Automatic annotation (TrEMBL):
InterPro entries: GspB_C. It comes from Permianibacter aggregans. The keyword Membrane applies. Residues 79-94 have a biased composition (Low complexity). Keywords: Membrane, Transmembrane, Transmembrane helix. Residues 12-31, 79-102 are annotated as: Disordered. The chain crosses the membrane at residues 41-61. GO terms for cellular component: type II protein secretion system complex. The lineage of its organism: Bacteria, Pseudomonadati, Pseudomonadota, Gammaproteobacteria, Pseudomonadales. Residues 159-217 form the Type II secretion system protein GspB C-terminal domain. This is Type II secretion system protein B.
Amino acid sequence: MSYLLDALRKSEQERQQNVPNLHTPIQEWEAGEESESRSPWLIVIAALLAVICLLLALMLWRNQTVNDAAPVPVTAASSAPSASVSTTPAATTPNSEQPIKVREKPSLPVRTGNRVVEKAPVVTANKPAPANASAPEFVIDGPVPRAYELPRDLRSEMPPLTMNSHIYSTDAKSSFVMINGSSIEPGQTLTPDLKLLAITADGAVLEFRGTRFLLPAMSSFEP
């Protein structure tokens, strides 16, 4: 590039020197015209050379940038880290149901002759009791008199009775009675001497001092 600039400067100086003035002889002026006629070609040639040099410099610069940007090849064995596979144990989910407690009986030594032999421990599982144990049902084995059919002296000692509610079902657990404003189930007592034995379709079977009688459904009894 410096050579081209020097050439352009020299050509410009020669052109200025060749410009005629009042003191320039005619022959020198003619020679200057010839050199001036050649100067445009020199400028064109210099410009072309400059363009060519610029193109070459641009191509070299692009090649250099491409070479710099190219990745350095590395071997897969050296660059890739060694893969390690680790297995984790599967998470155990706790059982939602409660385990049955097992009670182990201690082993007892058994003497046989001169040797003592220990029996293997016997494992017994605690069986859960049934959730709904039904109460024993009262069985009526014969006709039961009504309350007003009892002897007079016994009736006089009985308290007044009024059945406020009566629900009977073939399922004993669904049966229900209310006597004297109190809910009562078979096996329970109204007074120390009066006990409910069963609930039937006709009413409630009660027992007073060992004597059974029937209180009809939704009825009242006055001694």
